[in-house]
Each structure stands twice: as C-alpha cells, then as structure tokens.
Amino acid sequence: MSPFAEPGKTFGQRLQAALADAIIAGYIAFALFCLLLGVRTVDKVTGLTLAPRPGLLAIAVGIVVFGRLLLNLLVWQAEYPITTPFARLFTSERFERRDLIVLGTAAFVSALLLIVGGIIHWAAFQLIGACVLGFLAVGVVRRVIVYFFPNLPYARIFTIGGIAFAVLFPICSYLLEKAFHLGLPLRYLFDLSILVLTYVMLGWGLNIVVGLAGLLDLGYVAFYAVGAYVFALLATHFGLGFWMCLPIAGLAAALWGVILGFPVLRLRGDYLAIVTLAFGEIVRIILLNWTPVTNGPNGISDIPKPTFFGLPFSPVAGSMTFSSFFGLKYEPIQGIIFLYYVILGLALITNLVTIRLRRLPIGRAWEAMREDEIACRSLGINTTITKLTAFATGALFGGLAGSFFATRQGFISPESFTFIESAIILAIVVLGGMGSQLGVAIAAIVMVGGFEALRHTEGLQSIFGEGFDPALYRMLLFGIAMVGIMVWRPRGIVGSRSPTIVLDEARPIPKALVEEGRA
Amino acid sequence: MAYFLQQLINGIALGSIYGLIAIGYTMVYGIIGMINFAHGDIFMVGAFIALIAFLALMSLGLTFIPLALILVLIIAMVLTAVWGWTVERIAYRPLRESFRLAPLITAIGMSIVLQNFIQVSQGARVKPLQPVVTGSYELFEQNGFEVNLSNIQILVVVTTFILMTVFWLIITRTALGRSQRACEQDRLMASLSGVNVDRTISLTFVLGAALAAVAGLLYLLYYGVIDFYIGFVAGIKAFTAAVFGGIGSLPGAMLGGLIIGLIETFWSAYAPSGPEYKDVAAFSMLAIVLIFFPTGLLGRPEVEKV
C-alpha cells in the first residue's frame, strides 16, 4: 500500500504524488546501482580496471522509475486497481463490465504484440505477448470449467491426473517413438524428468520439516550428502548393490538427523535455522577434507546402477541382463526409464508417508507445534520428541534421495552438496506453499524443469544478447521469488491448504468418554 | 612465544572486522528480534562498492592514498547504507506482523538475491586489489622469527575502535539511541510515546549497513581479494560473535568478534590440519555457543513471552 492511497484526491494530485514518489525511487535506484551496475570490473594483466556501462544503469533506473510510476497510478493509488480483473479470473467472483474491458484489451494488445513481433522478428515482443495470452487462457479455461462443473474435487483430479501422467509418460513416449519415429529427444526428456522428480522428492522431504513441523532447516543438503556418501562408500568398498544400500543410507541419514537434531532442538526457530546451516557446511567441509575416506574434492566414481531384481541393464559379459532375460534388444534408454520409475516410486512413497503421517497423532503434533510451540507444550506434547521425529523423517527421505542421486550420477563429490542446493530445495518448499504437497511438486517442476528447459530455448539469445545463460539468473530469480511470495502470498503459489483437521460442529461429549477420561 | 604473539596480532585484526559486522546483527536483533540473514551479504556489497569506488578514484587521477581511502570510506558507507535501507523496506517491513518464519525466509531470499546480483553484475571471479596500505613495524625477533605489526593491521584496529566509540556514543547519548532502546523494550509502548518506530528501525539498518561497509573496506584492504561469496562465511562467523558476546549488546558484539577472530587464528595456527578445518571450528563454536550459552557473555537472559 502506497502511503498516499487516499480516496477523494483529484487526478492531478495523484499524478503529482506518484511522480514525486517515482523520482525518489529513481534516486534510490541510482544510488544502489551506480557503482555495481554502472561500472564493471575487468581483469587485465596490469590488474583490475573499470569499464563503464551507462546504458545498463540507465535501463535499470528507468525500469524502477517507470515501474513505480505505473504501479502508483494504476494499482496502489487507483480506486480501481488494474490488477483486480486479473486476480478475479482466479476467483469465483462475478465480473463487472470494466473487468471485461480490461481483460479484452489485455488479450488484444498481447495478440497484437505476438503478431507484430512475428513480423518484425522481435522475440521479446513475442515472448511478452505469449506469456500474457497464456496467463489469460489459463484463467479463462479455469473459469469456464468451474462455471460448468462447480463441485468437482479439483485437487484430487489434479493429483490423480498428475500421477497417471507421471506413470504413463515414459512408456507412452517410448512406444510412440518406437512406432512412429517422431524424433523425440527421449534421453533428454527422461534425464530432465528424473532431475525434476529428485527435487520433488527432496521438496516433499523438506516439507515435513519446514512445512509441517515449522522448523526451518537450512542444512537439508547434509542429509542428502550423507545418503549419497553412505551408498557410494558401501557400494565401492563392499560391493553392495543399490537396493541393499537404499534402506541403510536412509537409516544412516535419519540417524544423522537425530544426532544433529538432539542438541539443537531446544533452540528457538531462528537459532535452529542458523545451526542447521552451520551443520550443513560442517558436513560438506568434512567430506571435502577427509580425503582417506571420501577421496576429498575428487569425489567417488564408478558407483553402480540399480538392478531390476538382480538383472543389470548394461551388458555384462557372461551374465543375464534385463534385455536378454526379457528377450529385448539392448538399448541404453531402458536403464534410464528404470531410473525414472525408481525415483517416481521413491517420491510417491515420500508423499504417501507424509499424507498418512499427517493424520496420525504425530503429524497433528507437528502441525500444532508449527502454529504455536508454547501452547503445544502446555497441552502436554513433548516438543523435543516431536521435533526429533520430524527431523529424522525429513532426513530419511533426504538420505534416500541422496542415494538415488549417487546411483544416477555414478559420481559424487562435495561440490554437489553446497548451501545453494539447500537454498534451492527451501525455495521450492516456500514457493509451493509450506505444507502443500501439490504446491511443492508444481514449484519443483516450474523452477527446476522450467529453467532447464529455458537453457535450451533458442529465442532467448536474440532477446538478451549473445552468450545469455538463464542458469546464471536462476538463483537471482529464486531469491526474488522467495521474497515476493512471502510478501504477497505467504501461503505459496498454489497454497490454499486446508487444515488437516477442523472441528466444524460443537458436539456434546459422550458420557462414556468422560468416564474413561478421554475427553 | 614469538609465533604466539604474531597470531595474537593477526587474530585481533581479524576479530575487529568480525566485530564490525557483528554490530549490525546485534543491533537489528535487539530491536526487532530477527536474524538479518542478509547482513553478511550487505558486508560483501560494501566491499564491492569500496573496491569499485577505489578503482574509480584511482582512474580519475587521485593518487594521494589517505585522501582516497577517506573518500572511499564515505562513499562505501553512504551507498551501502542505502542498500541496508532498501533491504529493510522491501523485505522486512511488510512482514513485521507476519508469521514467525516469514522474515527469516525473506532474509535468506534477500541474501541469495544480493549474492547473485553481484555475481551477475560483476562476475564470479575473485577480484584482486594490489596492496594499498603497505609497510610494517618489526616488534621483536626471537630465534629468527620476526613479530610484525603491519600498518594495515594498525589501521583496521584503530578504525574499528574509533567507530565503536562513535556508535557507543550514538546509542547511549543521542535521541536516536534513546528511541532505539525504547523500541527494543516495547515497540507498541514506544510508538505510543511518540517514537517513530518505522524510522528508528530503518535507521538501525542504515547504521548496521554503514558499519558493514567499513568492515568490507577493511577486509578488502587486509586480504586484497574479494568475491561474491565472502559474505556467507563472514556473516555466519560475525553472527556467532554477536551471539557469543550476548545478542543485543554492542560491547558484547565487539568482544565476541575478537574472541571468534582469535579462535579462528589460533585454530589455523596450532590445530592439526587447521587451515582446512578453520571454518569447521567457527561453525562448531556457533553450535556450542547457541546450545550452551544462548545468552552470551554480556547478554541478558531472554524471557519467552506468550
């Protein structure tokens, strides 16, 4: 809310106030960016030198000034904020006439941008137009469906549809490719899906700790690392297979969670966060420097792939393989599809366990503790045990995901387990809405899959210049999104998670229960 | 003995820098009760602003080093203070009445934003600066081992103690300090008594960021090399210092900074494979301090209010 959003002002007064505000914002932006964006340090043989970038600085300040001016005039100060009709698309309120005018104009302008951009080959126009049109289309389709079928269980349909798609997608695309030779980049698609599913699983695992129990764990990647290293060490030193090591790695991570958790769980929320961060870094530094065991920065390689009930996928001399057993022709893609199903299964188990646990007393204790720890203690819940179980459960799934990561990569090193990784997982949980399973999955797909896909999008170079790499901006956008979500939608993008249990009516307590002392 | 003395000198210089950053944590924690997770990155931004300002002054032909350093100090303090103000305005003020974890999450988000903004705008490679303040005094020699006190170490310690004194006076003697202490005790009551709470909190961030900029400049001069990641580790260590000294206490932050600096230096010097594990030592200190002495050396025990 802008400080001068007062009703009853004339347009002139509004414009004046908005202009003054925008100019002040411009000065501040100039102070912020003048040295950091306006000048770039360049390495030369003689030492660091400076290269001025006045254009970039002008663009940045201009965006701030005009953005702020438009926001002031159209949203913050306006009696009818321009965002209202767009927000209304995603509710079930009735449209007013002016809503329809605004939406229609938006659709028309973005279509125009799309067409003009296509004619003059300006990809930026096309991108903006396509994004706005896509947004509008999603909203309109949603309104139409909700109008005709107001009472369908949408969350459930979405979940079941999503799971069905995830299960059928690799087989169907593989068979389609076999039958019609469409030239689908199967290998790339499956690798990307495996990556996304790994993050979905990690997000769901961390969701137990952050979303359900309300403990901010900034060192989640430590459990991921423990799982990966336990599996890698067992496999390379003792020759144990993936399926044998998976439970061991999970339990080791859970045990590690208990060991780390026990001393720190008496701490308050923010202290807990920073101690978990410190533990995460300690684990990484130990992995980096304990060379005799972990092989230090060189990492561990030649980690075996999982087998299908003892049948390996890659051809081994003199032994039965998956393809020879089923009389198929050997193709490397079979192993990748199998990996996909392994991680899908692990992720779904994580989800299932979380959903079931939420209905058990322990899950309710987690949610109660998240809402108010003191009240929770006053009601006789042992918060130490409650926190420990949340920590250990989260760590267990982190460890399982870790061993999957190790077997998929075939190589691990401490490089993969930095704080950035923890931050990405936390960002996924926060963006998805803490506690919302569906939201976390969508956030993982958008943030991880979306960015990987962007990396391979051709048109971006022509908009942002040669050598543009969206991956560089990924963490920047993650950070901005984390702040934005907390400020505008603290319950996450999807986030309208209803409480697991609601007392909807006042019921008289049966006499029998009172006598038993249960009520 | 000579080796010990040399490490002591190094530790005090390092600890002064940690102390300067720690003051930012401690002041913000004292007034709104949150860990400003992005403060370490404000320090890093301050170091970058100082580096660029210094290079810019050099290229403009200002070669008289003391004047250049004073100008750089002022530029860095002012511009970093604007960063501190902006971070508070964007990320923390809207969330003051939000749920418990919200400001902490935005703080982490802000920290990621600052790091990656610098990485994108200035590049990921380390930025070296040729030694600016050179020369040293030989204190004494023992068995062929010289104990040196360099000019930059003197500069670091003297600057720190001057600024500490100035800030101590601001907090204890001025109207701003009085409103800060009022907000610390009871924000609602303070606003009822005519204290502009929003402004006081903003100014706290501004002061903390200005001190972080000084720390950034001193770090740059002391080590001669910075990158976008220095704020992360330095921030955690300074936070440890703030807690160790007693969070909310200004002299405590300085004392904690010195102790953490000394522990880190002596650990590197004496422990087996010390340099590799010096961050582990600092992080373990953090855990130990938080678990066993959460009130710190000079802090008051905190009463949990319902």
How does this structure look, described?
Chain A has four domains: 1-80, no CATH class; 83-152; 203-294 and 338-409, no CATH class; 428-519, no CATH class. Chain A contains 21 helices and two strands. With 519 residues, chain A is an all-alpha fold. The model of chain A has no long low-confidence stretch (mean pLDDT 83). Chain B has a domain at 18-135 and 145-235. Chain B is built from eleven helices and four strands, in the order ααααβββααααβααα. In chain B, a hairpin with a 2-residue loop joins β2 and β3. In chain B, α2 (39-59) crosses α9 (230-245). Chains A and B meet through α1, β1, β2, α10 and α17 of A and α2, α3, α4, β1 and α9 of B.
Largest β-sheet summary of chain A: 2 strands, antiparallel
Shape annotation of chain B = globular
Separation of the first and last Cα atoms of chain A? 47 Å
Assembly type of the chains comes to heterodimer
- Overall pLDDT metric of chain B: 86
Strand portion of chain A: under 5%
The span between the termini of chain B is: 53 Å
List SSEs of chain A in N-to-C order. HEEHHHHHHHHHHHHHHHHHHHH
Major sheet of chain A: order of its strands?
1-2
Order of helices and strands of chain B: HHHHEEEHHHHEHHH
Q: What portion of residues of chain A is helical?
A: 55-70%
Q: Radius of gyration of chain A from the CA trace?
A: 27 Å
Strand content of chain B: 5-15%
* SS content category of chain B: mainly alpha
Structural class of chain A: mainly alpha
How many beta-strand segments of chain B? 4
